[in-house]
Amino acid sequence: MHPPVRLAVNGATGRMGRALLELLRDDSRFELKAVITSAHARQINTPVFTGDDAGTLRYSSAWPAPGVLDAVIDFSGSAGLAAALEYCETNGVALVTGTTGLDASLTQRLDNAHQRIPLLRAANFSLGVAVLTRLLREAATALRDWDLEIVEAHHGRKEDAPSGTALALGKAAADARGTTLEHDAVYVREGLTGPRPAGTIGFAVVRGGDIVGEHQALLIGQGERVELGHRATDRSIFARGAIEAAYWLAGKPAGNYDLDAMLAERRAK
Ligand SMILES: NC(=O)C1=CN([C@@H]2O[C@H](COP(=O)(O)OP(=O)(O)OC[C@H]3O[C@@H](n4cnc5c(N)ncnc54)[C@H](OP(=O)(O)O)[C@@H]3O)[C@@H](O)[C@H]2O)C=CC1
Ligand SMILES: O=C(O)C1=N[C@H](C(=O)O)C[C@H](O)C1
């Protein structure tokens, strides 16, 4: 049993931040040291928890002094993740991030971060999507010539499209087929004419209401099709996955880690 992991949550007033705090409040494996959100959030300087065991923790936009944290969990946005990455790299702190919709330069910074810190990124922290990804790799290989379409649906406040998960599923299938999304993805069909080009991977996006997150991969042949799908109905599944990842990652040497490695290590125990 190692001492509690000293943790910060970044993006703490958001949908995922709130789901994380709800679970972390009663998780004795962690000592919550900082609860960080944007400087303009109305919760800044207000108590994070209420009740008899509330403690003195307050929302803040300032990162703690060096030496205070072992790990950061980030579900914020590009600016929030950039700040978290800067802090973690400067202070040698482990970073778990689920933020999606990153531009090329932030992706590049993350790609290089493994030289300095333990880093675990996942576009989707649910166990179900980890399994869906494996199934899709197998189906995309076995049904190599079938058309592949990826359909995703999310709540109306989501900022990026297609979702990080849809892109990760597309990438997994493209890798399995020996191609790339840069070469074969079709994100928009408006203005295209003629038949569907063979080998392309199509993406379609639905946005509305309170949909937590749904992903479907359709492998479409002649006279038959395979449909693989996952439906999240509660975002606590993502929060739980990220918390397990932070506990697993804290104290590891610098490097790039993923959920598959964590799940494999746990299965082996
Ligand atoms: N990998 C996964 O499993 C999942 C990934 N996600 C991804 O996580 C991200 C967040 O999602 P969600 O919680 O729904 O989004 P929200 O918009 O609800 O939350 C984002 C939070 O980050 C805060 N924020 C903005 N800028 C900064 C900053 N510079 N520093 C710190 N905090 C900041 C926002 O504050 P304010 O509102 O004041 O701007 C807000 O509280 C998205 O990219 C989403 O796609 C979501 C679910 C699961
Ligand atoms: O923004 C969300 O809500 C979600 N985002 C992630 C994504 O972009 O794939 C994961 C999940 O589907 C919820």
Automatic annotation (TrEMBL):
Keyword list, A-Z: Amino-acid biosynthesis, Cytoplasm, Diaminopimelate biosynthesis, Lysine biosynthesis, NAD, NADP, Oxidoreductase
Catalyzed reaction equations: (S)-2,3,4,5-tetrahydrodipicolinate + NADP(+) + H2O = (2S,4S)-4-hydroxy-2,3,4,5-tetrahydrodipicolinate + NADPH + H(+); (S)-2,3,4,5-tetrahydrodipicolinate + NAD(+) + H2O = (2S,4S)-4-hydroxy-2,3,4,5-tetrahydrodipicolinate + NADH + H(+)
GO MF, one example: oxidoreductase activity, acting on CH or CH2 groups, NAD or NADP as acceptor
Biological process annotations from GO: diaminopimelate biosynthetic process; lysine biosynthetic process via diaminopimelate
EC number from the UniProt entry: 1.17.1.8
Pfam families: DapB_C, DapB_N
Keyword NAD: yes
Highest taxon in the source lineage: Bacteria
Positions annotated to bind NAD(+): G11, A12, T13, G14, R15, M16, D52, G98, T99, T100, A122, A123, N124, F125
Active site feature: H154 (proton donor/acceptor), K158 (proton donor)
Domain Dihydrodipicolinate reductase C-terminal: 128-263
Family to which the UniProt record says this protein belongs: Belongs to the DapB family.
Function: Catalyzes the conversion of 4-hydroxy-tetrahydrodipicolinate (HTPA) to tetrahydrodipicolinate.
Record note on quaternary structure: Homotetramer.
Protein name listed in UniProt: 4-hydroxy-tetrahydrodipicolinate reductase
Originating species: Dyella tabacisoli
